[in-house]
Design goal:
Strand content: under 5%
Number of helices: 4
Order of helices and strands: HEHEHH
Shape: globular
Strand order of the largest sheet: 1-2
Radius of gyration: 14 Å
């Protein structure tokens, strides 16, 4: 999911989908690539609600720094590596 604006409820919708998929017994993964704060609440909630152990997201301040320093490729490589860890 991708938000169209700030504070539109993407996290709430994603957590609802996670809960629904878990209740249906379907196999799925969860990863939030960038978060505002550590620890990330949605990642923590997924760990509490399911048997999943998603990777910690990259802090927004770190992502912004990397983008500002022209390290887009390194940032994307980190995100792709974390996605590879998701079951």
């Amino acid at each position: 999911m991708v938000p169209t604006a700030h504070r539109v409820g993407v996290t709430s919708v994603c957590l609802g989908i996670v809960r629904a998929l878990d209740r249906l017994g379907l196999r799925f993964g969860f990863y939030k690539p960038v978060a505002r704060h550590a620890p990330d609440r949605s990642t923590s909630l997924v760990r509490l609600m399911t048997t999943l152990d998603p990777p910690e997201p990259i802090l927004g301040t770190e992502a912004e720094r990397m983008l500002g320093e022209g390290q887009e490729e390194i940032l994307l490589e980190r995100i792709v590596a974390e996605v590879g860890r998701v079951d």
